[in-house]
Design brief:
398 residues, seven-stranded antiparallel beta sheet, five-stranded mixed beta sheet, globular, binds zinc ion
């Protein structure tokens, strides 16, 4: 069984966009109320009713709430129940140690709502346009950039700085095939992804261009009077440019990981804790000079490439992903195994101080990573479990 997600930019009418905002608002309210109830009133609730506070009991309370409140009743009940279910799942995951505890949703930041696949239908209108039918909202047009394959499991509508979009999750009745072969991937700063066979994947140049434009837009926004219309306009521009950059990066990550998964059955990657690396940069700001700046630069590059995104995508696209110990991969000779920091001449080249083997530094590291593939640091069973829990998002927005 394979999961695949499709994301399309919606083109709602003015009334439909209002309805979206209303639905998202009610679902946010339901989530926040239910979260509040779980956080602070669960003991009281148990004492009063003798029931545990969970999805079933909270859904029952939602039905009562709907009877009293007109504006809640006007919005699809299933979307609200879905919010409760999502909260329940988030709590389960948190208790299992698989994620953080759920947080309140903020207006404008988490504007989204989800329907189950049964309630939604998708139609193609012509070669450019399609439409999706959403409960209590009706048919909404979207640019249909590709066909939707499989059985729909859910559809999420969410607001981005570039407008509303829909993500449709599908279940496809086939499995990932093992195409054989194995590859090691080094995640570097100069080259975001370097394979052990020498293939280098670089971010599109538009990302660097957008970086500059975002910084400029941020400067303009910071000069304007806070809270003024002109300032808000400048801030919207920053948000729109950032959303565009994120979209391009994600598209790049999809193309790259699809390409890798098609060529190699086994993908060996380093276990990197990018979260910790990012944290330590801000934590070491008090230390003198150069190191901090360097570290910050490295962190920016790491965040730029979106390691986590790439890794997540590899987990569900590749037949097998192996994580290995990342220590000394850049200082070890992939030909003779000699470990010497002097072998790493500079950012780009590697010349072994013992046997004279020379290579591109990132490729040398990628080969080392591949060679460590038979000593994984994470149990394959965990990986398979992770794989099942990850939803699949395949496509890009127009
Ligand atoms: Zn050597």
């Amino acid at each position: 069984m394979l999961f695949r997600g499709y994301t399309f930019a919606l083109r709602p009418t003015v009334e439909q966009a209002e309805k979206f905002a209303q639905t998202a608002g009610v679902c946010r309210l339901v989530w926040n109320l239910a979260l509040e109830q779980r956080r602070t009133h669960w003991r009281n609730y148990q004492g009063r009713t003798g029931n545990n506070l969970n999805y079933v009991t909270q859904a029952r309370e939602l039905t009562l709430l709907r009877a009293e409140m007109d504006f809640i009743r006007e919005v699809s009940q299933n979307a609200q129940q879905y919010a409760l279910k999502a909260l329940d799942d988030a709590y389960r995951r948190a208790f299992k140690g698989l994620g953080g505890f759920p947080q309140p949703k903020k207006k404008g930041v988490n504007d989204s709502f989800t329907f189950t696949g049964r309630e939604v239908s998708v139609e193609r209108l012509n070669h450019r346009w399609g439409r999706v039918k959403l409960p209590k909202i009706g048919w909404v047009k979207f640019r249909m950039t590709r066909d939707v394959e499989g059985k729909m499991t859910e559809a999420t509508v969410n607001r981005t700085a570039l407008g509303w979009q829909v993500s449709i999750g599908c279940k496809i009745d086939r499995d990932i095939q093992d195409v054989g072969g194995a590859v090691g991937i080094d995640r570097g700063v100069a080259v975001p992804l370097m394979l052990s066979d020498g293939t280098a994947y670089r971010l599109p140049e538009t990302v660097a261009l957008l970086d500059r434009r975002i910084r400029k837009a941020q400067r303009i926004a910071s000069r304007r009077k806070r809270g003024s219309n002109r300032c808000r306009k400048a801030q919207r521009r920053v948000a729109a440019l950032s959303a565009k950059r994120a979209r391009i990066r994600k598209h790049w990550a999809h193309e790259t990981t699809t390409d890798i998964a098609r060529k190699f059955g086994t993908v060996v990657i380093e276990r990197l804790r990018t979260k910790n690396m990012t944290k330590s940069a801000s934590g070491t700001i008090a230390e003198p000079g150069k190191n901090v700046a360097q570290k910050r630069g490295l962190n920016r590059a790491i965040l730029n490439v979106g390691w986590h995104q790439v890794e997540t995508m590899l987990f569900y696209k590749a037949f097998r992903v192996v994580k290995v110990d990342p220590r000394h991969t850049s200082q070890t000779c992939s030909a003779c195994g000699n470990l010497d920091s002097r072998s790493r001449k500079n950012q780009a080249s590697f010349v072994c101080s013992a046997c004279g083997f020379h290579s591109n530094a990132d490729q040398n590291a990628a080969i080392n990573i591949l060679q460590r593939g038979n000593t994984p640091v994470v149990e394959p069973a965990t990986l398979q479990a992770m794989k099942r829990e990850l939803p699949l998002v395949e496509t890009l927005v127009v």
